[in-house]
Amino acid sequence: MSGALALTVTTPLRIVLEERAIASLRAEDATGDFGILPGHADFLTVIEAGVLRWRGAAGPWRYCALRGGIFAVTGGAEVRVACREAIVSDDLASLRSRVAAARAEALDASRRARSEGTRLHARAIRQLMRELASGGDTLGLDGDG
């Protein structure tokens, strides 16, 4: 093993992590768990969802939860992950709680969006019903300017 790895994790909106001097890292794709060391052959795979973990020569493991990404190793020294979502943490327990909180927040936002869509749909139906009941063209749909 020679040198060190550089790791970059990005989402469509931001660079989540840029770290140098990584001694090793582990991740998981559809075929299973794999490890990367400096000098690794070029490699490309798809990560559905999972936890990436890495450490420096003497440091503790660090973690990043990933959802829907591409994992690439180039030149035996550059590791890049482009994913939909990423959450970084220094310990697994903290990461677990942060992922659970992010899931709950996403579910709540989805429920609010559905509720707002239903409200707008009901409002449009009520407006159309008023239009039909009045027999007029209060919406300007008739085309006679």
TrEMBL record:
The compartments listed are: Cell membrane; Endomembrane system
- Organism superkingdom: Bacteria
Q: Name one Pfam family in it.
A: ATP-synt_DE_N
Membrane topology recorded in Swiss-Prot or TrEMBL? Peripheral membrane protein
- Outline the extent of the ATP synthase F1 complex delta/epsilon subunit N-terminal domain: 6-86
Q: Which UniProt keywords apply?
A: ATP synthesis, Cell membrane, CF(1), Hydrogen ion transport, Ion transport, Membrane, Transport
CDD domains given in the database record = F1-ATPase_delta
Major localization listed first in the record, in broad terms: membrane
User: One GO cellular component from the entry?
Assistant: plasma membrane
Q: Which residues form the signal peptide?
A: none
Q: Name one GO molecular function term.
A: proton-transporting ATP synthase activity, rotational mechanism
Keyword Transport among UniProt keywords? yes
Q: What does this protein do?
A: Produces ATP from ADP in the presence of a proton gradient across the membrane.
Q: How does it assemble?
A: F-type ATPases have 2 components, CF(1) - the catalytic core - and CF(0) - the membrane proton channel. CF(1) has five subunits: alpha(3), beta(3), gamma(1), delta(1), epsilon(1). CF(0) has three main subunits: a, b and c.
Regarding protein family, the annotation reads: Belongs to the ATPase epsilon chain family.
This chain belongs to the protein called: ATP synthase epsilon chain
Native organism is Amaricoccus solimangrovi
State the gene name recorded for this protein. atpC
